[in-house]
Amino acid sequence: MTRIAAYLSGQLTDTERQSFELWAKASAENERLFKEASTIWKNSGIKFSIDAPATSQAEWLELRERLDSIQKSGKLVSFFTAPLTLKIAASIILLMGVAYLFVWFSASPDRPMVFHADKEMISFYLPDSSQVWLNAKSTLKFDEHFNEAERHVQLQGEGYFKVSANHKNPFIVTTAGTYTRVVGTSFSIREDSATETVLTVVEGTVSFASQKDLTKTITVGAKEKAMCTSAGEVKKYSNDNTKFSHWIKKDNPVFENEKLYPVAHLKTDFTWRKNAIKQSVIDGTVKSSATIATYQNVKLKITYTRRNGKLKTIDIDVPGPIPAGGQVNFRAKLHDLLTNTRQVLVKVESAEAKSTL
């Protein structure tokens, strides 16, 4: 959806626009989504620009209140099942709040989609929601019908993959000399030289083989690595290099954004009630939408309104780190014994980020 918003607002380059138009014509469903999005866009009167000034605090608070009211009503909204208007709105907000630099090259329907990292690494999502990081001087290619058949990409150089699980449709990475097959996991592949390719697995298991003999496949697990020589010899070792993926977070705009703006990637969901002694008890969850950062030392600010209209606040610490895409639960009790509390608001006050890669 972010690409729809960028396309409609004229933010894409000629090459990116060609790539998007190819996607829009790929299926009847894509054409329908684009048509509906275009209609909503034209009727909304929105003038969008990635460089637009930040949304005012009042607008953000209004949006937050609307989302909170939806959550409290029990109508949970999924990005993939929400009405199209909410999807477009979410895309616009994402683009206004975070500037992601990405490269998307495509020539014509009879040629593959190509991502290329030139002088610095790039990060992007594939059509199946798998995330890829390409190191400098690296290239990734895949067929335009990537989602319709076997998920297959071709790598030159070095890439880190966080693959979306799909047991019916395996994810395959080929290099000049190797064949890697997974269902859904995280791993990196690096062509060290013309004579050696190295696979390092972060989690899950990966099938790895030489292109010269695909029948001799080995299984590589978490904290293991495998090497394939130009002669087709494949060997597995334990991985004692904890910095093998350090290049991913270096000058990475995604991680830098998650590090600089932790509050934007942490959301709270909570309920509150009065216990037997008329004290408010809050039970909630802090959820992370980050893709790289693990948040620690998370602090929450709880604001509540007393019967006389006065506001009171307390600060609490959230137990344990919150991994990328994960969540933690918390409980708090307010200082409101035997009083009527009218309204409660819980928000993330601060957090520290570290890379999970």
Question: Would you mind describing this structure in some detail?
Answer:
There is one protein chain. The protein is of the alpha+beta class and 357 residues long. The chain folds into three domains: 1-97, no CATH class; 110-251, Jelly Rolls (Sandwich); 261-355, Lipoprotein YajI-like (Immunoglobulin-like, Sandwich), CATH 2.60.40. Helices cover 22% and strands 39% of the residues. It has seven helices and 20 strands. The protein has helices spanning 2-8, 14-24, 28-44, 57-72, 84-97, 246-249, 253-260, and strands at 113-117, 122-125, 131-134, 138-142, 151-156, 158-162, 171-174, 178-182, 186-193, 196-203, 205-210, 213-221, 224-229, 234-238, 266-274, 280-288, 293-305, 311-317, 327-333, 343-355. Helix 1 (2-8) crosses helix 5. Residues 44-61 and 70-109 have low confidence and may be disordered.
User: What is the percentage of strand-forming residues?
Assistant: 35-45%
Class of secondary structure makeup: alpha+beta
Q: For the largest beta sheet, what order do the strands appear in spatially?
A: 1-4-5-7-8-11-12
- N-to-C SSE string, H for helix and E for strand: HHHHHEEEEEEEEEEEEEEHHEEEEEE
Note the main sheet: 7 strands, mixed
Choose one word for the global shape: globular
Q: Output the CATH topology of the largest domain.
A: Jelly Rolls
Query: What CATH architecture of the largest domain do you see?
Result: Sandwich
